[in-house]
Design goal:
mainly alpha; 45% helix
Length: 158
């Protein structure tokens, strides 16, 4: 890896950390979307360089959904509160005034965000209690024979 690649990776990690911090601070989708519109082009300018406005909006929307959907929110009992894709005839959430089907739905898919990284970072930054790990870094000391993971779920009648 050369210096330029390392610098770009550090910039993306900075955007990811800043995103998680902003989500935990505001816990509001619209606020986070506005933050991402302002911050992403500043923090990772090479990703936005030369893109037309529509593609810039689509990239911001993809980043917003990809990161927001993986952050466990304190206001939601540390569960996620995903942003669902709009119906194809609905207005595009990027604010272009076009229908979603003719706007950001046409944007290329981004690679998935590393769920474990985003959720771990969110839990760390939020101060939420961390799961206890046993030897080898496994939660609860590893899976035990006949443990809860292997039991059949009980019905509501049990």
């Amino acid at each position: 890896m050369d210096q330029e690649q390392a610098t770009e990776i550090v910039a993306w990690l900075g955007l990811l950390r800043g995103s998680v911090e902003e989500i935990l601070r505001s816990q509001d989708q619209r606020s986070f979307c506005g933050w991402m519109e302002r911050e992403a082009p500043l923090r990772v300018p090479e990703a936005f360089a030369g893109l037309p406005a529509r593609q810039r909006r689509a990239l911001v929307l993809a980043l917003v959904r990809g990161i927001w959907n993986e952050v466990p929110l304190p206001r939601n009992g540390f569960q996620t509160d995903p942003i669902l894709p709009p119906a194809s005839g609905a207005p595009c959430p990027c604010g272009s005034g076009k229908g979603y089907r003719f706007c950001c739905a046409l944007a290329p898919d981004l690679p998935p965000v590393a769920v474990e990284v985003v959720r771990g970072l969110a839990m760390l930054l939020s101060g939420a209690p961390q799961p206890v790990t046993g030897e080898g870094g496994e939660k609860g000391g590893g899976k035990k024979e006949g443990g809860p993971e292997e039991r059949e779920p009980r019905s509501a009648e049990s």
